[in-house]
Design a protein that fits this description.
Structural class: alpha+beta
Order of helices and strands: HEEHEHEEH
Largest sheet: 5 strands, mixed
Number of domains: 1
CATH architecture: 3-Layer(aba) Sandwich
Radius of gyration: 14 Å
Distance between the termini: 34 Å
Number of strands: 5
Strand content: 15-25%
Bound molecules: tetrahydrodeoxyuridine
CATH topology: Cytidine Deaminase, domain 2
Number of helices: 4
Strand order of the largest sheet: 2-1-3-4-5
Helix content: 25-40%
Length: about 130
Amino acid sequence: MNKEKLIELATEARERAFAPYSNFKVGAALETDDGDFFIGCNIESASYGLTVCAERVAIWKAVSEGKKNFKTIAVVVDTEELTPPCGVCRQIIWEFCHDIPVILANLKGKTETVMMSELLPRAFDTKFLK
Ligand code: THU
């Protein structure tokens, strides 16, 4: 796991957040099985509900470039308590990345790694659609 690199990339991505309404900037970095990296930041809309989180931006970018297998995702936010992915992003991370490690980090060097199965136990996914 490229932990330091993922945190660095997510920290850079966070700088590009478009968050004029919440002022809450989030950066994400996703590592593919074949060693590529995709980054994302949150992008807000004046119609607030259309906002997209950093994690999903990173995943959509990777999927739209043909990537299907993912190793790790990092999420960086400037909060004392490490910020975990929201519920919608947990569902999407699970569906597209399955039980990967999620690295949470802040700007002060605090980090923690949690598995998706801890963040979203008993997840709904395609296996039920039969
Ligand atoms: N946000 C993310 O980008 N990721 C999360 O997992 C939590 C929330 C963004 C959405 C919105 O732009 C801002 O943080 C405040 O909710």
